[in-house]
Design brief:
Oligomer: single chain
Number of helices: 16
Largest sheet: 10 strands, mixed
Helix content: 25-40%
Number of strands: 22
């Protein structure tokens, strides 16, 4: 794929990234206000993964928090119990006597609450700026990358906790062991997942930074891969003097970043399977939902740093754990043995290869993967675990722009599966685009030799048809993987329910959807 975005995209992205760290709405290189100066804070769309985490930390800090969201959810109910005033629906009156309003890039300027905040002249902060305000005075750690940042952030948090620390954290997913995505700790370390999608990862100015990989994504915002790379270079330049940047030696984008960062005088430690990695994984293996590797130092006569054992499958998760190991030991000075023990006890985050159950011999797993790199990693891992049974993947594309720009790459990422069902696009923050649907990916899959008979790939545009279709074709020994950043996560439990109701021994191909 060309690194240059289609010509009409700049017109669709009026808040596109600028090299100075501004996206047209926020300057992420500007100083953020002190948390003590925020007053009463109102969050628009408070139930989002990132927004709810910031709200939780502020509530724990004693800041008065209110917020609104489109519909009720368990997250909103939890925020209420933690002290937030929460409204369902959007109304200018919900701002009350707020002094500061917090939004994400997904909130449009015509939102009635944001329009009211602008008219009153209230301070409006991006979610990342609000988070940075409560991080002041902490030893900041920021985890960035196209793939793996949520899992890596969560692994680092758990490892630090096992070392006897109580770090604050804000993660883009819920830690399974803690049942929360954020925490205000008593220690001086604050770990955050740093989102590159809108340039907001420039705001944190960390002591320790991790970049898991640099790949073309979010081209609706950046326009070109070169702009993505420039943003990561700017992110690396925000690492504090004397701090540490941790990068993956197996990813070319990270290797390019390494050269830029070292030339600028930043200390960099690399990790990976590559022979020249500073921390190298060897003897990689695994069984079932576990994976392991030996961690070696660099160069001739390299010493064994320890044995890494994690309760998650896949080489990509071993790499994530190694990044957390380097950040915790080299960056934050923690004991390697205790860090490894903490990583061994990591129980995962929601929607990151999360087992949903097993009925009639059919296992169902759910994952948040939504760009080509993430999808490729999770499908490859699942295909190994499925053998000798089939891997049935239900994929819901996320964003019209990503579907348009990466249909071929997503098809390739899905291709190791035995059966692929492609849903229609989950729009998220975007308006529909003419001619763009999940059929683009299904059509590309059908062009591949292993799917050329048209029997094992189909586009199913009706959400309600997906679970019944899967329940009818799945047989004992199959692994069903639901994949995507949207409401595909709700389909797994429905598949399990229908499998439980299915007459024993029945499994037919219903031919639902458009067989391609």
């Amino acid at each position: 794929m060309s690194s240059v975005v289609p010509g009409d995209l700049r017109a669709r992205a009026p808040y596109a990234y600028a090299a100075n760290g501004s996206n047209g709405r926020f300057d992420f290189t500007a100083e953020v206000p002190a948390a003590s100066s925020l007053g009463s804070v109102h969050f628009i769309a408070i139930g989002g993964a990132g927004m709810s985490g910031v709200a939780r930390v502020m509530l724990a800090r004693g800041i008065r928090v209110s917020g609104s969201d489109a519909k009720q959810s368990l997250v909103l109910a939890a925020l209420v119990t933690e002290g937030a005033q929460v409204y369902i629906g959007h109304d200018a009156a919900h701002l009350g006597d707020a002094d500061t309003v917090v939004i994400s890039s997904a909130i449009r300027e015509n939102n009635v609450e944001l329009a009211e905040a602008r008219s009153r002249g209230l301070r409006v902060l991006h979610r990342s700026q609000a988070l940075a305000s409560v991080m002041q005075g902490s030893r900041r750690v920021a985890v960035a990358g196209a793939n793996g940042k949520t899992t890596t952030t969560a692994m680092l948090v758990v490892a630090l906790q096992y070392c006897g620390l109580d770090p604050s954290f804000a993660v883009g997913g819920e830690l399974a062991k803690h049942a929360t995505n954020a925490h205000h700790g008593t220690g001086d370390i604050f770990v955050v997942e740093a989102d590159e999608s809108d340039g907001s990862f420039l705001v944190y100015r960390p002591e320790v930074a991790i970049v898991t990989n640099v790949q073309p994504d979010h081209l609706d915002f950046y326009g070109t891969f070169e702009a993505v790379q420039a943003a990561y270079a700017t992110f690396a330049a925000t690492v504090q003097s004397g701090g540490l940047l941790v990068t993956c030696a197996d990813d070319q984008g990270s290797r390019d970043l390494l050269e830029v960062a070292r030339a600028a005088g930043t200390r960099v430690i690399t990790y990976g399977l590559a022979a020249d990695a500073d921390v190298r994984l060897t003897d990689v293996g695994g069984a079932g939902l576990h994976a392991h590797a030996q961690l070696m130092g660099a160069g001739a006569g390299a010493v064994v740093l320890g044995h890494l054992d994690i309760g998650m499958p896949g080489r990509h998760n071993l790499l994530n754990a190694t990044a957390a190991f380097v950040a915790a030991t080299v960056g934050l000075g923690q004991d390697p043995a205790r860090v490894l023990a903490g990583l061994a006890g990591f129980t995962g985050t929601r929607r990151r290869f999360e087992p949903k159950g097993e009925v009639a011999g059919v296992r169902v797993v759910d994952d948040y993967a939504h760009n080509p790199g993430k999808v490729a990693a999770v499908v490859e891992t699942a295909s190994i675990l499925a053998a000798p049974g089939r891997l049935i993947v239900v994929f819901q594309p996320h964003l019209y722009s990503r579907t348009r720009d990466f249909a071929a790459e997503l098809a390739t990422a899905l291709s190791p599966a035995d059966v692929v069902i492609v849903m229609d696009v989950y729009a998220a923050r975007e308006d529909p685009m003419p001619g763009v649907s999940g059929a683009l990916i299904a059509d590309r899959l059908a062009e591949l030799a292993r799917f050329s008979d048209g029997q094992n790939v189909r586009f199913v545009p009706s959400w309600s048809d997906v679970a019944p279709g899967v329940a009818q074709i799945a047989t004992a020994g199959d692994l069903v993987l639901t994949v995507g950043a949207g409401d595909v996560t709700m389909i797994g439990p429905e598949i399990l329910r229908l499998l439980g109701e299915r007459p024993q021994g029945s499994a037919v191909d219903p031919g639902r959807g458009r067989v391609v």
